[in-house]
From TrEMBL:
<keyword id="KW-0238">DNA-binding</keyword>
<dbReference type="InterPro" id="IPR014757">
    <property type="entry name" value="Tscrpt_reg_IclR_C"/>
</dbReference>
<dbReference type="InterPro" id="IPR036390">
    <property type="entry name" value="WH_DNA-bd_sf"/>
</dbReference>
<dbReference type="GO" id="GO:0045892">
    <property type="term" value="P:negative regulation of DNA-templated transcription"/>
</dbReference>
<dbReference type="GO" id="GO:0003677">
    <property type="term" value="F:DNA binding"/>
</dbReference>
<dbReference type="InterPro" id="IPR050707">
    <property type="entry name" value="HTH_MetabolicPath_Reg"/>
</dbReference>
<dbReference type="InterPro" id="IPR005471">
    <property type="entry name" value="Tscrpt_reg_IclR_N"/>
</dbReference>
<dbReference type="InterPro" id="IPR036388">
    <property type="entry name" value="WH-like_DNA-bd_sf"/>
</dbReference>
<dbReference type="InterPro" id="IPR029016">
    <property type="entry name" value="GAF-like_dom_sf"/>
</dbReference>
<dbReference type="Pfam" id="PF09339">
    <property type="entry name" value="HTH_IclR"/>
</dbReference>
<feature type="domain" description="IclR-ED">
    <location>
        <begin position="91"/>
        <end position="275"/>
    </location>
</feature>
<dbReference type="Pfam" id="PF01614">
    <property type="entry name" value="IclR_C"/>
</dbReference>
<protein>
    <submittedName>
        <fullName>IclR family transcriptional regulator</fullName>
    </submittedName>
</protein>
<feature type="domain" description="HTH iclR-type">
    <location>
        <begin position="28"/>
        <end position="90"/>
    </location>
</feature>
<keyword id="KW-0805">Transcription regulation</keyword>
<dbReference type="GO" id="GO:0003700">
    <property type="term" value="F:DNA-binding transcription factor activity"/>
</dbReference>
<keyword id="KW-0804">Transcription</keyword>
Length: 287
């Protein structure tokens, strides 16, 4: 099985397991199945056949076809009859525009990310911790036409073992959150991807000590990434900002390039980011 398909099966399977483990009202099976089909699509697999979708969502083809037909009628999925492939439709974008996770951070960081890309000629990414993974909430791609790689899109999630931004998340979340993340699937994207929980715990401590992370060849061979944490005005960890490009563009003599630029960007974002509850605290102080 191809690595991307194996990851998709694991991701959807993990999502379904989390739904089933949550107490309270039992989930609606038909909705659960529809969500599994929608989440089968990824940036590196945006077009899938009925057979592939049924396999990833763990459904029989007849059930998958009926659900996909309904999703198509609601504008969430489209079908290419010539290629016999399904893909997400524009209705997903309309729903995504209402997502609040990381919204304040993204609105503050977006122009700063653009400056980082302009200064470094590297693609810049903004990450937050969500559902035991790193969620990409914004990116600015550099015009690197000589690099053939699937870049993370806004809304894409990844495990915390690979990449500078996700590993920053791993280092600065709470011990409880870290252990929960390490208990999940740690994909080996390249031979240099670290998957051992004990080594990842040790790496998290090292990242906290130095305040940055340099990742090389663990996501794509030939690419490197540099990441730093973002702290809000209250000192709380808010997310991570990272840059990615060819290793020679990020690393010189084993040391990261552009670290000062990235740290300055993170500081600027953090200075504008209000600590959670700060408004409520001020309102109570007025009473």
């Amino acid at each position: 099985m191809a690595p991307s398909r194996a990851r998709a099966l694991t991701n959807v399977g993990g999502m379904l397991q989390r739904i089933r483990e949550k107490p309270g009202v039992p989930p609606v099976r038909s909705v659960e199945r529809a969500v599994a089909l929608l989440r089968a699509f990824t940036p590196d697999r945006p077009r899938l056949s009925l057979t592939e979708l049924a396999q990833i969502a763990e459904l029989d083809k007849g059930t998958a076809r009926r659900i996909l037909h309904t999703l198509s009628m609601t504008g969430l999925v489209s079908f290419d009859p010539r290629a016999q492939r399904y893909m997400l439709d524009a209705g997903i974008c309309e729903i995504a525009s209402a997502v609040q996770v990381g919204l304040d951070l993204r609105e503050i960081a977006s122009p700063i990310l653009a400056e980082v890309t302009e200064l470094t000629s590297a693609s810049a990414f903004l990450w937050v911790h969500h559902d035991d993974a790193a969620l990409c909430v914004d990116r600015v791609r550099a015009p690197l036409f000589h690099i053939d790689a699937t870049w993370f899109a806004v809304g894409a999630r990844t495990a915390l073992n690979c990449g500078a931004g996700p590993r920053i998340i791993l280092a600065y979340i709470s011990d409880e959150e870290r252990e929960r993340s390490l208990a999940g699937e740690m994909p080996r994207r390249t031979p240099l991807s670290e998957t051992a929980p004990a080594k990842l715990r040790k790496a998290a401590g090292s990242i906290r000590e130095k305040g940055w992370e340099l990742a090389q060849d663990d996501f794509y061979i030939g690419l490197a990434a540099l990441g730093v944490p973002i702290f809000d005005r209250g000192g709380g960890f808010a997310g991570a900002v990272s840059i990615t490009s060819l290793t020679a563009d990020i690393v010189t003599d084993g040391l990261p390039r552009h670290l000062d630029i990235l740290k300055h960007a993170a500081d600027r974002i953090g200075e504008r980011l209000q600590a959670p509850g700060a408004s409520a605290d001020r309102q109570q102080g007025k009473k």
